[in-house]
Amino acid sequence: MRVLVIGSGGREHALLIGLSKDPSVTELHAGPGNAGTSSVATNHPVDLASSDAVVSLAQSVAADLVVIGPEVPLVLGVADALRDAGFATFGPSAAAAQIEGSKAFAKDVMAAAGVRTAHAEVVDNPAKLDAALDRFGPTWVVKDDGLAAGKGVVVTTDRAVARDHAAECLESGHPVLLESFLDGPEVSLFSLVDGTTVVPLLPAQDHKRVGDNDSGPNTGGMGAYTPLPWLPDEVTRQIVDEVVTPVAAELAARGTPFSGLLYAGLAIGADGPAVVEFNCRFGDPETQAVLALLKSPLGQALNATATGTLDQLPPLEWEQGAAVTVVVAAENYPGKPRTGDVITGADGAGVLHAGTARNADGQVVSSGGRVLAVVGTGSDLAEARAQAYERISTVKLPGSHFRTDIGKAALDGRITL
Ligand code: GLY
Fold first, then answer.
1. Which mean pLDDT values do the consecutive 10-residue runs of the chain (417 residues) have?
2. How far apart are CA 212 and CA 194, in angstroms?
3. Which of 117, 198, 291, 352 could be stapled to 18 by a disulfide with Cβ–Cβ 3.0 to 4.6 Å?
């Protein structure tokens, strides 16, 4: 099977490494990929937001399967164009990708499916903002109702900060969503979905704030670990039965079945799981940890999803133990990151590339905010953390920063339900 992976981040590097271990995968291509993906795949420059460009690349490499990593091409309908051109495609239609592309659409689907989520109001008029803010708090959750790579969400106890973010979104022409704050530890549960069959992967936890002890602004994600020692298996089953399966069924009933990876982000509160958000693709950086423990052939699982045969896929098998991924970010991230810095030590085991490129001299340089995702595995969370931080110590990137506490609260038993 010749597989083309669309995207250029750490998630796509992890997908390519996973695919490279599947004996049924004979050729791997990345569009556009990054400096790290070229060690497992052939990189091809492509505008991933252009359906024509992606279809033409899939034709030129004669792809048997196309896997779309990021949300932007999905929301723009690149998967629809690939399917129309006859390619088996892993990733939802533009209509189903609205579960991530429009938070208001996601709320509507969840209401129809009877899924617990935060109470929310859409504000599209600055004149109505203050009255709406008064109906929320004392912790305000303000979301840009569009794609914002995780950085469009502000959670704050400071009303002025909430107001400034909402006003900024409205000024840039996006409605904002105000939400009630959901208390409880967060879980990212990814499921393969091919319409109505749902196959969950291992639950993971992201670390969204930039600094240790959850300090500083939100980011796209600074690190993750899996599995979650504090989450009983029956809660994972409850999430599948009461959240993911009803949402997949509701999307199918609307005539827009979801095919691809459905990402449920949840808070596990006193009343059980409640949805914080849905995404229409693998999460980054959780994927880097989750796939590190997958024993089953990844290509076969993604192909079964793309071809609507998930019900025939043997149960997924996982390595025992734990995996941890720690993101190395560029100076100033999550603000405008400094790029172009030379990186050394980024070719070892477990070092996945996210925002990297090669300069004119062939050196690996930073090209984005989240530059590397370094993965460690072990027989338990302590070993996996130790390996991740040991591997990170060999990486040199001027001005870079990373969190030192990924998985630490779980390890110390500080997360309880
Ligand atoms: N880890 C957060 C996301 O992928 O959106």
1. 98 98 98 98 98 98 98 98 98 97 90 94 94 94 74 87 94 89 96 97 97 95 98 98 98 98 97 95 98 98 98 98 98 97 96 97 97 98 98 97 98 96
2. 38
3. 291
- Domain hosting 171: range is 119-179
Q: What is the pLDDT of residue 266?
A: 98
Q: Give nearest CA residue, ligand 1 atom 3.
A: 283
CB 51 within 8 A of CB 75: no
CATH classification at residue 49: 3.40.50.20
Is position 162 within any domain?
yes
pLDDT of residue 94: 98
Residues 129, 148 within the same domain: yes
Nearest atom (ligand 1) to Cα of 281: 4
Let me know whether 300 and 351 are in one domain: no
CA distance 210 to 115: 30
210, 214, 223, 293, 408 from 325: Cα distances, Å: 14, 16, 5, 12, 12
What tokens does 395 get? 């990486």
> Amino acid identity, residue 243?
V
Q: Answer yes or no: is 199 within a domain.
A: yes
Question: Which amino acid makes up residue 345?
Answer: G
Q: Which atom of ligand 1 is nearest to the CA of 221?
A: 1
CB under 6 Å to ligand 1: residues? Answer: 150, 206, 220-221, 279, 283-284, 286
* Contact (Cβ atoms closer than 8 angstroms) between residue 44 and residue 316: no
Of 14, 30, 17, 24, which is closest to residue 290 (Cα–Cα)? 14
Looking at 282, 312, 342, the residue that finishes a domain is: 312
Nearest CA to ligand 1 atom 4: 283
Identify the domain boundary among 294, 312, 330. 312
What is the predicted pLDDT for the residue at 104? 80
Determine the pLDDT at residue 152. 75
Q: What is the pTM of this model?
A: 0.93
What DSSP designation does 243 have? I
| Residue with tokens 């989450």, as numbered in its chain | 231
Q: Do residues 230 and 280 both lie within one domain?
A: yes
The CATH number that applies at residue 166 is 3.30.1490.20
- Does the residue 110 lie in any domain? no
The answer to whether residue 416 is domain-embedded is no
